[in-house]
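Reposting from the mailing list since nobody answered there.

I have sequence plus structure tokens for a pair of proteins and want to know whether others read the tokens the same way I do. The first protein:
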Amino acid sequence: MIRFSLICEHEHEFEAWFRGNDDFDTQKKRGFVDCPSCGSHKVEKALMTPAVSTSRKQEKVALAMGEAQKQALAQLKALAEKVRENADYVGDKFAEEARKIHFGETDPRGIYGEATPEEAQSLAEDGIEFLPIPSFPDDRN
């Protein structure tokens, strides 16, 4: 099975699994591929990064980056850490807490936590602004 990044004519991005390129093409021609956000059948494959399996450790992969990429990664890590330091961790109650803040049921404050893709989509549909915080391998120590 291959996971494709897809985009519809209205620029909604989503992912779907197929047996291969031929399976995607066949399902698209038969009208089985549609955008979960708007229902459009005008769907194309989006640019995606291939998932390459390797036995090399993450540290070895990081060494292959150029200096500009290393600096950008360090800045991104610092930004993520600053967000975490200045917000309350709410765990898997992120969607619930974000709604309470949005609808004025609790005092406004910065929060972070986990949300399922379905919860994130529902928050976005409700007009609740949020951003994913990147997670890095060394965050899990």
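The second protein, same order (residues first, tokens after):
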Amino acid sequence: MAAILEFLKRAKPVYDMVYKTTMLICKLLLVADIIIMTWVVIARYLTFFPAPNWGEEVILTLMAYMSVLSASLAIRRNAHIRMTTFDRYLPVSLVKSLDLLSDLFVMGLALVMLVVGWKYATGIGAKGTYISMPWLSKTWMYMPIPLAGVAMIFFEIERLVIDVEHILDKNYVPDLGFELDEKKEDK
């Protein structure tokens, strides 16, 4: 077990690179979204400036990619909203176990997103086309879900390794956002 954890800890530079690359992709998608949206809005008011007929569909598609990829980035930073109200009243070992359990559920969700999302993208998506771009398959509209599933699985593996390390480390106390009473700490 320790060898597996050590190997996965040495993969941190790979996780850093994938995180930075995904963040760059999200930023580029946001910039493209803003540019196209600005073009469409300006074209509504300036009649001599033609609006792209594909603008709104592309904006929605880019936004779908950006939102689900950025959600996978939040997994790595452990920044998703979660219920921690009762953590101050629970034993530290239980809080560590609940962190692991919640990450296992997120991993399950990511697997569902990958499998079912791929089925939809290659099934229903492959049968349709964009209205304004009949040459482009709607597979691209459904593809953010399995793509986000892959990204979530990738980052969730790192979270699970961190959770296991925290459980194995008897001296680790989760940052609960308050001072922990000596009575509530597991011995």
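Reply #1 (J.P.):
I read it the same way you do. The chain has a mean pLDDT of 86.
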